[in-house]
Amino acid sequence: MFTTKYRPTNLSNFIGNQQAIQPFIKWLLIWDGKNKKTKCALISGVNGIGKSLLVDLILKKHDYHMIHISIDEDRDKDYMINTIKPLLGSKRTFSGQENVLVVSDIDSSGGDYGFISSLVECIKETQIPIICICDDRYSQNIKPILAYCFDIKLSKPSYKDVYPLIYKVVTTEKIKISKSKVDKLYEQSNGDIRYILNALQLGNIDKCDTQKNIQSSNIFDTTEKLFNMDTDLNDKWNIYWMSHDIHPLLVHENYIGSTLNVRDEAKKLENIAYSIDALSDMDLLDAQFDFQLEPYIAFNTIKATTKCNKKGQIKFPQFLGRISTANKNKREKLDYTQVKFKI
């Protein structure tokens, strides 16, 4: 995969935001936990510009050990207090590496009841540096931690920053592409370097205008296009990446009702089984929590729609509804317990 092959291996090859690297390194190296306003670093920027990559490169360069909390963890107050907080008093590993806690996607923690408040508690008491990563610096979800953060805002890499990478890829891989198409590719990427690499590898450069045509579509419209057998596969690829975090769930929710309407029941079951196999492969890849596998996750999600054709209402994922209900019940239970103790 191009995302792996052309992944920067050192800070000098990191694309864009060079002005943010040295302040970040300085904060990390002089961290002693005494300054309450900078006990945590908050790295923010749009999706795909390399926030997690930058953290990984800096920690490896200076030989730190990363303790990572991803969005896929069951993040709540109990998890933070019982699992993470005990680790914050251990400054070094047995091999002598200094520990650092890295928390990804904290702006996506709206449903993780008690997570942010317990994270604030951990920041106050930590004996090791904490690094938080988010897309939306101004999300209300992360407002409680801002008073304790050293702010590192990453901007979208400029065309000047990205062009050397594109030139290197098209030269090495012998890809024929005009300057105007490179311009269009950068414009539609919105600074997402992974998107650029995936588009170059999969030959979707000629479909640059597709993104503009569906930019205003909501997730239900785009999912309907995924299920529509008249939608070109290259268009489906571009559509998928518009909401790649929710499209797999929407496809899973709707694939049975969208299966091609054939008279032969055995053939219909065969089509359903085909979609199930693709979604199973997608789920196995997704469980690896490796962003380099995202193109394969996209491929299998799209594959699951190829035996389908739906033009009509798309159902919202029941899975997300159950999570919302579970979180609501958890909040009500905690509120009831607190009231009971007060009485």
From TrEMBL:
Gene3D superfamilies for the chain: 1.10.8.60, 1.20.272.10, P-loop containing nucleotide triphosphate hydrolases
Protein name as catalogued: ATPase AAA-type core domain-containing protein
Keyword Metal-binding assigned: no
Keyword list, A-Z: DNA replication
Cellular component terms (Gene Ontology): nucleus
Mitochondrion among keywords: no
Biological processes, Gene Ontology terms: DNA replication
Pfam families: AAA
GO MF term (any one): DNA binding
Domain ATPase AAA-type core: 42-155
